[in-house]
Amino acid sequence: MGKNRGLAIDYLLLIPGVGFIVLFIGSSIFITITQSFGILSVTGKSQFTVANWVTIFHDKESLDSILFSLKMGLMSSIGTLLFAFPVALFLRKGGAGKRFLASLIKIPLFIPALVAAFLIINLISYHGIVNEALLAVGIIKKPLRMLNDKFGWGVVAIQVWKNLPFVLLILSSSLASIRDDTIDAARNLGAGTFSVLFRIYVPLAMPGILVSMILMFIKAFGDFAIMSVAGPTYPPSIALRMRNTATLFQEWDKAAVLGVIIILTTLLITWIYSRLAEFVTGGK
Amino acid sequence: MSRLILRDLVKNFDNVAAVSHVSLEVEEGEFVTLLGPSGCGKTTTLRTIAGFYQPDQGEIYFNDRLMNNIPPAKRNTAMCFQSYALFPHMNVWDNIAFGLKMRKIPQAEQKTRVDKALEMMSLSGMEKRMPAQLSGGQQQRVALARAIVTQPDILLFDEPLSNLDAKLRVQVRVEIKEMQKRLGITSIYVTHDQDEALAISDRIVVMNQGHIEQVGDPQSIYLHPTTSFVAGFIGLANILSGRIVAREGTRVQLELPFGRLWAFVGDLRAAVGDTVKFSFRPENVVQYRGGAANRVEATILHAIFMGDAIDLFLDAEGTRLRAHAESTAHLKPGDTAAFGIDETAFQFLE
After folding, report:
1. How far apart are CA B84 and CA A182, in angstroms?
2. For residue B4, what are the contacts with CB-CB under 8 A and spacing of at least 6?
């Protein structure tokens, strides 16, 4: 009896946290999914249909948006990793200016994405600081298009800058768990800098690398703020298209399809990464 | 295989001398132990030999080759770490083969050498296990296999047994010694455990506060300590000082608060009137049965039964002494008894 009552109280205490997730987030995801099939629709009559899905997948513009967002997710996660990993390695080893660098690099954490986007615009816009400086020095003849460019370099640059400290935190804790003895043992057994990096640091930091890449991908793939400021005019990102579909064209059911695509892609990528993690860490 | 020569080695950390003016020559195939309390500089010396630290002064030679500027990866030493330092993401096979892969040894030879090392360390059949799935003793053996498989010039041991339980420690140290003798690899072994040092070494280097106190084979280190640090650190010792009041050939008479003691001085150059420092072991202070040159009356403060002997804490007119009695003796605190000290038991210290 007493034991059961204890258990009941445990569950009661969980309600504010778990209850909120189930009630509001769970239900809204559920409604998004049903809406994409025309059920519980807010605009038309409620009726099961796959027409919305068929339309989206036959619409070149929608597919372009999906592909563009995938590309941005991938590029941003790889880009951030490439910038963050060397810094994390440096911070692990220490050296002159370690504390200064560690605090400097955390600055973007305190700046909202949209503000960050506008800050970077000053740097890389058509008449921004970088272009003006390059022109003045004479390295380029005419300004480079780095913002709202077709490829999305501007977006990647801002994503990398904004999320560097976040990824750095994950990588640093991952690298901190590697023992100095392990590194020394590798060097003692004949491993040079390159071998120590790729045979010891990278595989041992792999769980952190994969987690940071998943999180970065999810952030960049579904991003709205940075894409709307620095993204190309065409194609809009999937989140931008979803907003437009819902509010400009009042096609909520089609917007729901895009929403479900974002969720599914995220789940799929997470699943692929976790399989990859199992593979690299020997299935444990 | 290499001779190892350290010449006037100095290593400072933040202006504190971790190793100060250490010079040492280790012969090919010799097993030398660096022994001392924590912070004595033994591990720093070892890591400097491995190349993890750059000496601030002095030279390191393997045979005739100056090693100061050679990176750790190119020194062909192999180190066994206290933590074993196995690569947690590699199985036993890959751990052992790591050094061979780094040296770009052909696959076929890698296989023969790893197989041989596995067999030597009785690890056959465990190739596919991950380090986390092994016991401490097994991890230790993988670490040893990984070290010897590269056929290093010098084997370096950094307190490799301190994470094992007492019984296994004794067993593995015998295994290490046998393996080293069989392979004939020059070995430097760091430990703070005097029993381990006495059991395993060809020669012991006793270190204290960054410098070498005494170098010698286990027997001479134990029987003939030359400094009070060595006398006190290795085994138990009564360390006293007294004035020489008489000399008869190779014997002197020493004046102490509780009486006068005769002692053999060997070739010690000391004159009547000098004050000298000396030590003798508790096992040289036994119940007086006539014969011994020195007789001391003392009160027993504590008597601790150790099984093979009784460990005694004595008070001889204010001077504390340690003594041994046979385990069958009937001695209890408060008793006064006579003890004899053999005149050959005295070791004169710097």
Report:
1. 9
2. B24, B25, B26, B49, B60, B61, B62, B154, B186, B188
Query: To the nearest whole number, what is the mean pLDDT of chain A?
Result: 85
The rounded Cα B194 to chain-centroid distance in angstroms is: 5
B117 chain-A contacts, CB cut-off 8 A: none
What is the nearest CA distance from B57 to chain A, expressed in angstroms?
A: 22
Which 3 state secondary structure label does DSSP give B260? Answer: strand
ipTM: 0.84
Antiparallel, parallel or unpaired: β B154-158 and B211-216: unpaired
- Residue in chain B closest to A192 (alpha carbons) equals B73
Contact A203 B71 (CB under 8 A): no
Query: B254: which strand partners?
Result: B244, B261
Q: How many CA atoms lie within 13 A of B4 on its CB side?
A: 29
The model carries a pTM of 0.81
Which tokens is B344 given? 């050959």
Residues of B with CB below 8 A from A204's CB? 88-89
Arithmetic mean of pLDDT, B255-271:
86
Question: What band does B76 get if pLDDT is binned at 50, 70 and 90?
Answer: very high
From CA A243, how far away is CA A233, in angstroms rounded? 15
pLDDT tens-digit map of B133-160: 999 889 999 999 999 999 999 999 999 9
Grouping H, G, I as helix, E, B as strand and the rest as coil, residue B233 is helix
Tell me the β-bridge partners of B154.
Answer: B77, B186
Contact (CB, 8 A) for B3 and B186: yes
pLDDT tens-digit readout, A51-65: 888 888 888 888 888
Per-residue HEC secondary structure of chain A comes to: CHHHHHHHHHHHHHHHHHHHHHHHHHHHHHHHHHHHCCCCCCCCCCCCCCHHHHHHHHCHHHHHHHHHHHHHHHHHHHHHHHHHHHHHHHHHHCCCCHHHHHHHCCHHHHCCHHHHHHHHHHHHCCCCHHHHHHHHHCCCCCCCCCCCCCCCHHHHHHHHHHHHHHHHHHHHHHHHCCCHHHHHHHHHCCCCHHHHHHHHHHHHHHHHHHHHHHHHHHHHHCCCHHHHHHCCCCCCCHHHHHHHHHHHCCCHHHHHHHHHHHHHHHHHHHHHHHHHHHHHCCCC
Nearest Cα to Cα of residue B138 among B110, B116, B112, B171: B171
Mean pLDDT of chain B: 92
User: Using a CB-CB distance cutoff of 8 angstroms, which residues of chain A are in contact with residue B49?
Assistant: none
Q: What is the band of A3 on the pLDDT scale with cuts at 50, 70, 90?
A: low
Render pLDDT for A124-180 as a digit per residue (tens, 0 to 9).
Answer: 887 888 888 888 888 888 887 777 778 888 888 888 988 888 899 899 989 988 999
Chain A: give the shortest CA distance to residue B167, in Å.
26
In angstroms, rounded to a whole number, what is the distance separating the alpha carbons of residues A165 and A171? 10
